[in-house]
Amino acid sequence: METLRKSKSPGTTIPDKAPITGLAEEVLTFSDNSPLKAAEMDLRHFLVTIADLNEKVRFGKDKARKEMRNFLLELIEVVDDFHRIFAHLESRGDAVEKQTKILAGNFRTVKRRLDRALEGVGAGPIEVELGSQAHPEKHQIIKTLPSPGRPEGSILEVERLGYSWGEEILRFPQVITVKNTGVE
Asked: What Rg value do the Cα atoms of the chain yield, rounded?
C-alpha cells in the first residue's frame, strides 16, 4: 500500500514514493513564495492604497469645499457692507458732497468686481419677489409688520440678500412679511 505525505502547501498530499522533480515540487507546493501569490499580494496592496488615496481625496475635497464656503460667506459680508454704504448715501439725497459722490462711484466699481468674482465661482444673490408669499424653507423671516390690504405672509421688504452657491444655499434671504392678524 502506498503512503501519502503532506506537501508544503496546506491541504495537499503527494504520494510518498512519487518522484519529485524541481518543477513538479514547485507546482505541488504552491506557496507564499510563488510569483502568482506575490502578484496577488501586490494587487491587494495596490487596491488598499487606491482606497486610502480615494478617502484622502474625498476628505480633501470636503475640506476645500468647506473652506470655499466660509470664504464666500466672508466675501458676501463685504458686499453687504457696500449695500449699507449705498443705502446710507441714498438716504442723504442731495446732501452728499461732490467728493463723496466720486468715492461712492469708486465703491460701486469695487462692488461690481466682487459681484463678478462671486458669479465666477457660481455664487450669487437669490431672487426674491416682493409681494410673493414667504416660505420658511426659502426665506428667513426676521420681522412682521401690519399692512392692511396685503395678503398675510407676503414679503414686504428684503432686509438682507440671500446667496446660493450652485445648488447650496449659503444664506437665506432675510425678509419682512405682512402680519395683519390682531391689528385693528
From this structure: 36
pLDDT digits (tens, 9 = 90+) for 94-133: 888 989 989 999 999 999 999 999 999 999 999 999 999 9
Q: Which burial class, exposed, middle or buried, applies to 126 when counting CB atoms under 10 A from its CB (0-12, 13-18, 19+)? A: middle
Domain hosting 145: range is 124-184
Distance CA 60, CA 22 (A): 52
Mean pLDDT computed over every residue of the chain: 85
Contact 115, 137 (CB under 8 A): no
Q: Which residue has the higher pLDDT, 150 or 29?
A: 150
pLDDT in tens, 154-181: 999 999 999 999 999 999 999 999 998 8
Domain count, the chain: 2
Distance CA 145, CA 87 (A): 21
Give the phi and the psi of residue 138 in degrees, each rounded to 5.
-125, -20
DSSP class of 151: -
12 within domain boundaries: no
List b or e across 12-42, with b for residues whose CB sees 16 or more CB atoms inside 10 angstroms: eebeeeeeeeeeeeeebeeeeeeeeeeeeee
pTM reported for the whole predicted model:
0.68
Torsion angle of C-alpha atoms 88, 94, 100, 101, degrees rounded to 10: 100
Question: Are 106 and 156 members of one domain?
Answer: no
